[in-house]
């Protein structure tokens, strides 16, 4: 008889829409670790990270948005690549008043800090996210960046210059500032680099029940080897599956 891999029955699926906001946040606990990096992404049935308009919102859903908010709710930093900021309309980073009390009890800043990685510093400086976030956003860039662009960036954000922009220097720059609960909201390039450097501890991935084509989905360089994660939980809502995966190490 040939070896047949063990197949398991349906996973216990929880109806995500039935969970309260607090229940959802509790499903995404921050481990008691010095540094924890989680990734949050939505993908379509055909593996696209963006829909017809090049944005993730067009392949998302209300249930995915609930989980998105729960995943970032008690984070210290929301980390994104410049491509994501250029594409997506990031709104000011604030926390609800009721969360601020909990954050303060946990020794956290009142709201997550936005951290944007950019070599070019070609960023949409007119977005309200720069001036209306609770905390001044961070821009992580190269020490060799154009001086004129550095000067412009400094008017809108706290600029952190790194000798080399690598996943390790990015995460170190955040942790040195006490930002140890990090949620990377993409995009695919930044996420790929963090995974390649084995810096992603948790991947919170939503599978949306749509096909979108991949023409507007960014591609990334192949990893030298696959990086394996183990399933933590699956939630469902709006026909989407919200999966929490943990690094297999
Ligand atoms: N499905 C989802 O959940 C999801 C999530 C986020 C984004 N998206 C979509 O993904 C697309 C953007 O993704 P992307 O992969 O193209 O962009 P990305 O990863 O957000 O950003 C890439 C940019 O980040 C900067 N960067 C990242 N690593 C760097 C490094 N090591 N050194 C220097 N600069 C570095 C560079 O900025 P500069 O060019 O400024 O130098 C680079 O061009 C958009 O269409 C967005 O809507 C989807």
Structure description:
The chain is an alpha/beta fold and 249 residues long. The chain has one domain (32-217): Dihydrofolate Reductase, subunit A, CATH 3.40.430. Helices cover 26% and strands 23% of the residues. It has eight helices and ten strands. It has helices at 21-26, 62-73, 82-87, 97-105, 129-132, 147-156, 167-175, 188-196, and strands at residues 14-15, 36-43, 77-81, 113-117, 138-142, 158-162, 181-184, 202-207, 229-237, 240-247. NADP nicotinamide-adenine-dinucleotide phosphate binds at residues 41-42, 49-50, 54-56, 80-84, 87-88, 117-120, 122, 165, 185-190, 193, 218. Keywords: NADP, Oxidoreductase. One of its GO terms (biological process) is riboflavin biosynthetic process.
Q: Helix and strand layout, with pairings?
A:
Elements: E1 14-15, H1 21-26, E2 36-43, H2 62-73, E3 77-81, H3 82-87, H4 97-105, E4 113-117, H5 129-132, E5 138-142, H6 147-156, E6 158-162, H7 167-175, E7 181-184, H8 188-196, E8 202-207, E9 229-237, E10 240-247
Parallel strand pairs: 1-9, 2-7, 2-8, 3-4, 3-7, 4-5, 5-6
Antiparallel strand pairs: 8-10, 9-10
């Amino acid at each position: 008889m040939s070896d047949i891999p063990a197949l398991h029955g349906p996973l216990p699926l929880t109806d995500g829409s039935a969970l309260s906001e607090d229940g959802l946040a509790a499903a995404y606990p921050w481990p008691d670790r010095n540094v924890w990096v989680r990734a949050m992404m939505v993908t379509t049935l055909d593996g696209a990270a963006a829909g017809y308009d090049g944005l993730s919102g067009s392949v998302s859903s209300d249930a995915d948005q609930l989980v998105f908010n729960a995943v970032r709710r008690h984070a210290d930093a929301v980390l994104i690549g410049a491509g994501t900021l250029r594409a997506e309309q990031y709104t000011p980073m604030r926390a609800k008043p009721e969360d601020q009390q909990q954050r303060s009890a946990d020794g956290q800043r009142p709201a997550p800090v936005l951290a944007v990685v950019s070599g070019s510093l070609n960023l949409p400086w007119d977005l309200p996210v720069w001036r209306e976030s609770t905390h001044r956003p961070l821009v992580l860039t190269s020490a060799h960046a154009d001086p004129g662009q550095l000067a412009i960036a400094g008017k809108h954000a706290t600029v952190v210059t790194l000798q080399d922009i690598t996943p390790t220097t990015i995460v170190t720059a955040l942790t040195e500032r006490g930002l140890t609960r990090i949620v990377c909201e993409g995009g695919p390039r930044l996420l790929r680099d963090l995974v390649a450097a084995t810096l992603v501890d948790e991947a919170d991935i939503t599978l949306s029940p749509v096909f979108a084509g991949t023409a507007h989905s960014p591609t990334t360089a192949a990893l030298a080897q696959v990086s394996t994660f183990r399933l933590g939980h699956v939630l469902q809502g709006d026909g989407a599956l919200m999966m929490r995966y943990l690094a297999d190490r």
